[in-house]
Amino acid sequence: MAGGPARRERLDAWTKHAGAILRAMHIATADPGTPDIAALLSEHLEDMHATSPACSVHALDVERLRAPHVSFVAARDDAGALLGVGAIAVIEPGHGEIKSMRTAGDQRGRGVATAVLDHLLGRARELGLSRVSLETGTAEPFHAAHRLYERSGFTECGPFAGYALDPFSRFYTRSL
To answer: Is residue 143 part of a domain?
Structure first.
């Protein structure tokens, strides 16, 4: 291996660390009104309004995340600390939308968003959906999300489900 034994040791240490993170993560259906979740969602909405004009913010608030057509999940560690959240909404027969993906600030870069997204895609399959789409922002703070979605098989698409072309929105879709 290029880089020799020191590189191998660093890679082994990172792999062990990443495995520990993933083993300690539990993702389950949750109430978006739970205090720590509501606080994370409030932070999410504040950040969306800080990076996009109000007419281009499509994040859902707690009450809309409680709608019957929405499956909302939270990722927690073994101690119960909130790591991240996400939701899938059924928007029409066979078609779902990923909503409100958010990772706690101190947990970013640790695989939380990937695990939550994978869980939501599994939930979409359970719901019998054949396509999942999403809308996200275009500003620099969204670039990590773009990479996540592209790594997860999403491709850019046009507006869907009543969205309009908007310079502050990027749309993605994928088949299941």
So the answer is: yes
The pTM for the full model equals 0.83
Q: Report the distance separating Cα 65 and Cα 100, nearest Å.
A: 8
- Element of type H or E holding 51: helix 35-51
- For the chain, 176 residues long, the average pLDDT of each consecutive 10-residue run is 55 50 81 96 79 73 94 96 97 96 89 96 97 92 93 97 92 98
List Cβ neighbours of 3 (8 Å cut-off, separation of 6 or more). Answer: none
Domain count, the chain: 1
Domain with 121 in it: 24-175
Q: How far apart are CA 52 and CA 168, in angstroms?
A: 6
Residues linked to residue 173 through DSSP beta bridges, in sequence order: 133, 155
Q: How far apart are CA 159 and CA 165, in angstroms?
A: 6
102 by DSSP, 3-state: which? strand
The CATH number for 89's domain is 3.40.630.30
Q: Tell me if 118 sits within 8 A of 98, measured CB to CB.
A: no
